[in-house]
Amino acid sequence: MSAQGKTKHPSKLSAGMLQNLKKEHRKISMLTCYDYSFANIANQSDIDILLVGDSGIMTLFGYPDTTYGTIELMEMMTKAVVTGAPDKFIIADMPFLSHRKGIHHALDSAERLIKCGAQAVKIEGLSGHKDVIAYLIESGIPVMGHLGLTPQSVHATGYKVQGRNTDDFQAIIADAMMLQELGVFAMVLECVPTELTEKITQMLDIPVIGIGAGNASDGQVLVLQDMLGMTQNIKPKFVRHYLNGFHTIQTALNHYHQDVKNASYPDATESYHLRNNQVQGNTATKIKQLMEQLS
Ligand code: KIV
User: Fold this and answer.
1) Burial per residue of 42-74, b for 16 or more beta-carbon CB atoms within 10 angstroms, e otherwise
2) What CATH number was assigned to the domain covering residues 15-246?
3) Residue 267 CA to ligand 1 centre (angstroms)
């Protein structure tokens, strides 16, 4: 049983178990999650991994990009997801620049996320912080890599497909090999050509989880609100909608609004009433007096 007293899902994964899935050619499903109520639903779904992505800074808090991420916001989201999904393997993103201020700052940030209940952290990029990745892993913190489009570098790269020219293609392969050598347990590959995903997935023993990276990877990740169709104006090519969330929720809100306006909500079954024994004797007299005073 978990801390919440619910039955544990028998197949809760760990960083170490993911390589077996790859070996057995079993695809890995990962979704982002940022809050308790969605985590609760995800906990009772078949999804393999929940990622407390720093995309939550945008999705949940409305910031324009992930450079606004802070360790405090990541901690808040991680705690909520861990509480809602005790049976899931949960990875938390290291926020913007938290891995670029020296090993001790990075270790402190990772410690804070692990102490919120995350079982692993994800770090974008590689160049300039190999030592940090190696140190966290040596310290017993499982690290997931993230190559291709790394949204925390949006001001340098924009949001565009990476690895399309020969140099970039080769550089991403070299980085992926290096990440594996450093000991990451898996990596995200974001917005790269399918051919590059195929090559890297074949070359590595660790699982490659793709987003906008075609179908050759060992698994897929999507932003929860994107796949639920809750974001109205932006739909990148790789996002598949599994629900028309925006319209469905908007319709429900309008339905509730109408019911309130035409007084059909709440009806008698949705209202509390005095019980028979509460309107006997002295109580009945007091209520009668009260009602007379009010009228
Ligand atoms: O923050 C995030 O949502 C991510 C995924 C896009 C992989 O890093």
Assistant:
1) bbeeebbbbbbbbbbbbbbeeeebbbebebebb
2) 3.20.20.60
3) 44
pLDDT tens-digit readout, 157-204: 999 999 999 999 999 999 999 999 999 999 999 999 999 999 999 999
Ligand 1 centroid – CA 288 distance (Å): 62
CA 290 to ligand 1 centroid distance, Å: 59
Has residue 277 got a pLDDT over 90?
A: no
31-43 pLDDT, tens per residue?
999 999 999 999 9
- Residue to substitute in 90, 91, 188 for testing ligand 1 pocket (most ligand atoms within 8 angstroms of CB): 188
- Cβ contacts of residue 98 below 8 Å, gap of 6+? 71, 105, 106, 109
- Among protein residues, the one with the nearest Cα to ligand 1's atom 2 is 53
Domain residue limits, the chain: 15-246, 261-294
Which residue minimizes the CA distance to atom 4 of ligand 1?
A: 53
Q: What is the sign of the dihedral through the CA atoms of 75, 78, 84 and 90? A: negative
Name the residues annotated as catalytic: 190
Ligand 1 first shell, C-beta below 6 A: 32, 53-55, 93, 188, 190, 211, 221, 223
Ligand 1 centroid distance, CA of 97 (Å): 15
Residue appearing with tokens 């929860």 = 224
Task: Compute the distance between CA of residue 10 and CA of residue 119 in angstroms, rounded to an integer.
Answer: 17
